[in-house]
């Protein structure tokens, strides 16, 4: 999650075991209905895919990495 590190906000990494198909289990599918990574949750906001996560993190920080 390079964008999250770049803007300097706190985050928690949740390990997902692909070998045991954990990414297809209900807990991960709640974060990402396609069973892929990354899945991102910020309170009630649930996002998946790197670019939407980057946009959300950047818009909630004061770093302005994305030009408007």
From TrEMBL:
It comes from the Eukaryota. Residues 1-68 form the GST N-terminal domain. Pfam families: GST_N (PF02798). It comes from Panicum miliaceum (Proso millet). Transmembrane segments: none annotated. This is Glutathione S-transferase GSTF1. One of its GO terms (molecular function) is transferase activity.
């Amino acid at each position: 999650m390079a964008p999250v590190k770049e803007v300097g906000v706190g985050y928690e990494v949740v390990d997902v075991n692909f070998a045991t198909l954990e990414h297809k289990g209900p807990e991960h599918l709640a974060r990402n209905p396609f069973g892929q990574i990354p899945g991102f949750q910020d309170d009630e906001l649930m996002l998946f895919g790197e670019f939407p996560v980057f946009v959300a993190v950047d818009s909630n920080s004061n770093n302005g990495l994305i030009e408007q």
